[in-house]
Amino acid sequence: MNLITKKIIPIICILLFLLTSCAGKGFIVDINEAPSDDQCIVFGKLTLIGAEGVEKWGEKFFEKPLLIILPPNSNIAHSYEIKDDGNFFWSLSPGEYTILGFGNFMSVSQKLPIRAKFNVPIGKKSLYIGNFLLIMQSNRFGCTIEDNSEISISKFKNKFHNIREEPSISIMETEPQPGSYDNIQYICDDKWGIKCENKYLGKIFNGVIPIYPEATAQPFKKISNAKSIFKWEASVNKNVTYDLIVYEAAAYYIDSIGKTYIPGRVVLLNEDIKDPSYQLTTELKPGTNYYWSVRLREGNDVSTWSLFHYFYFYVVGASSASNQWFTFSTPPNI
User: Fold this and answer.
1) Which of 62, 128, 309, 326 could make an S-S bridge to 204, C-beta 3.0–4.6 Å?
2) 141 and 131 Cβ atoms separated by less than 8 Å
3) pLDDT in tens, 159-178
4) Per-residue confidence (pLDDT) for residue 126, from 0 to 100
């Protein structure tokens, strides 16, 4: 075996390892041919709207944007790199999927939560789910969904000549804020009695300050047991009550080894809590990462959820993040 061959074989092995790692860790790629009988081609478009109209993905919004999609019965989300034109063609198994948000392959701290659902039916060859518009203007962020099925189905037929069945149309829907309410108001409004922008050991809170589990720059610190008690500082407004929400963390990959997390499925929502604490009545799953937050309630008016920001200086650099949920991890089941 010569020297060139010796060098080529390790390189090939590394490439094969990376490809198989990506394939096995929830990455979605566009399909170019008819899928297997038990899967469906899900297609649509993702459009970025900036101050000057439609923008090109990857230029003004993140360096390498990705979409985070939670499949049915899993806490491992798919990652999909958004192409320049935003059109996508995925081969998916039947079930209900949730778009959890947009992120950036280049930075785990850059992710925008968006929750939209679509359902892949059994026995269908193709499904159009809509045109998702992400609106980024003057540092404001929003989204809406359009039905451009006529244009998208025409593109689908040009791409997949051998599929004779007419595509189904089922436009995905954005999820409303969880729970019961009539109105939502920003948690830093005076009516909620919360001292926002309260700096505490490198952290700034927009909402209640958690006592336990505490908010830290190190995510998913272990709590003492899986049937713990949540505590937070009370509002000075004695007329408000509290809503507590807990999400199971959904893991997704930014490359073959770079795993990060985003709020996944809701596992607990308890409304109208009188005191600034809540004792779990059932155990959470052992060895699992969770997100949690608290909002305030006055009748059917609720606040936005509590978030925090942090900024720390170190000898060799700094660490910062904004609009963070509180996190914790349950101890393993020994």
Assistant:
1) 309
2) no
3) 999 898 999 999 999 998 99
4) 97
pLDDT in the model for residue 92? 96
- Whole-angstrom distance, CA of residue 263 vs CA of residue 306: 14
Q: Which amino acid is present at 187?
A: I
Please state, for a pLDDT cut of 90, what percent of the chain lies above it: 58
H/E stretch holding 152: helix 149-159
Task: State which H helix or E strand residue 150 sits in.
Answer: helix 149-159
- 10 sits in which H/E element: helix 3-24
Task: For residue 327, give both structure tokens.
Answer: 């996190």
Rounded to 5 degrees, φ, ψ at 14 are -65, -45
Is 54 in contact with 47 (CB distance < 8 Å)?
A: yes
Q: Are 110 and 88 in contact (CB under 8 A)?
A: no
Give the pLDDT of residue 10. 42
Q: State whether residue 182 is helix, strand or coil.
A: coil
State the pTM of this model: 0.85
Backbone angles phi, psi at 24, to 5 degrees: -95, 0
CA dist 83 to 58, 117, 151, Å?
8, 21, 18
% of the chain surpassing 70 pLDDT: 85
Residue 199 has pLDDT above 60, yes or no: yes
Find tokens 């929400």 and name the residue.
245
Q: Comparing C-alpha atoms, which of 98, 95, 48, 63 is closest to residue 78?
A: 98
